[in-house]
Amino acid sequence: MTHPRSTRIRFGRMVALLLATVVVAALTGCANNDQAAGPAATGPLPTEIPPGTKLVVADQQERVQTWLRASGELERLPFTVEFANFVGGPAILEAFRAGAADVAQVGDVPPIHALAAGQDVPIVSAYQTNPLSLKFGVAPGISITRLADLKGRRIAYAEGTAQQAAVLRAVAKAGLTTSDVQLVRLQLSEFLDATRTGQVDVAPLIEPNVTRLLRTAGTSLIPDAELSGISTGLSYVYARRAVVRDPARAAAVGALVAALIRAQHWSNQHRDEWARRYYVDSQKVSAEDAKRIVDSLGVYTFPHLNQQLVDRQQSTVDIIDSAGELPRKVRAADGFDLRFDEVVTRTVTEIGASFGTGAN
């Protein structure tokens, strides 16, 4: 059994370096060593983490590193970890394509677009939050109280993100098609400003951007009663296939999965401290808003990597495909490494967390 050693961490912003790597890789045409989905690894998951093992973790809004640091899990990781911050799954996918990131936490849609793009980045763990934590923000001076009111409206839309599937489900639930609305293609980072300045009428938002939107006079939210079934509430950790095929790095990914589950369960049990450490200190929202955000997300649960989860992911594949938004057919089952369920099962059981119900 490998004993933990001191973890070396570089928290400096790596974005410029990673983007440069992406550009160079694109120009040379040799960026991607994960282009086509290969056969799933077989046999038991490796557990030995030799000295010198390193993972580059693609983070969003510093959430993963804050979870690990606040819970004390970061200093116990038995390998070197580096963090790089991104906004949205597409940017992370570019880093994967360039070999500039190894593992990432994302929503449920980026792994689908990775498959469609021919990249082999299997899911290694999942976590569930309250699906109604995703809101539909409405621009100032506009009244939208029903999904049916979306007809003719300008809706912020970002392919390759969880918000993409939410928009498509909302349109379908309203009895509309994408030709009945105006999909305004933006970067995820542009959704908030586009909504509060009226460049779009509606945008799917998550916290803390929901709170930031509501600071603008005249903005509103589509009522939660309209939004049942729009979001799955699922997020994933996924990694490059080259990483999980390498015994040392596969073992490190397993250790990271376990540490992140423990860290997220720590935030279940220390909600006030998590609100302060992440939302107040890192994301700069008020203590009152931070408490509301944490309450809105509910308790983190950790689904098994099994056929039930694969079927849930396939339903998201199908909604995107039915809208003509995938370049080719993909199977959700090709996007999982089920060996990591052993880590999920053991960790959730040991700490007394929950696997959840599996319901949307």
Offer a few descriptive terms.
globular; 3-stranded antiparallel beta sheet; 13 helices; disordered N terminus; 360 residues; alpha/beta
Give a structural overview.
The structure is a single chain. This protein is α/β, with parallel strands linked by helices and 360 residues long. Helices cover 39% and strands 14% of the residues. The protein is built from 13 helices and eleven strands. The protein has helices at 15-28, 63-71, 89-97, 110-116, 162-173, 191-196, 209-214, 241-245, 247-269, 271-280, 287-297, 307-322, 341-351, and strands spanning 9-10, 54-60, 80-86, 103-107, 123-128, 135-138, 154-157, 182-185, 202-205, 220-221, 234-239. It has a six-stranded mixed β-sheet, sandwiched between helices. A three-stranded antiparallel β-sheet has the order 9-6-10. Helix 5 links the parallel strand 7 (154-157) and strand 8 (182-185). Helix 9 packs parallel to helix 13 (341-351) and helix 10 (271-280) crosses helix 11. The protein is globular and about 60 Å long.
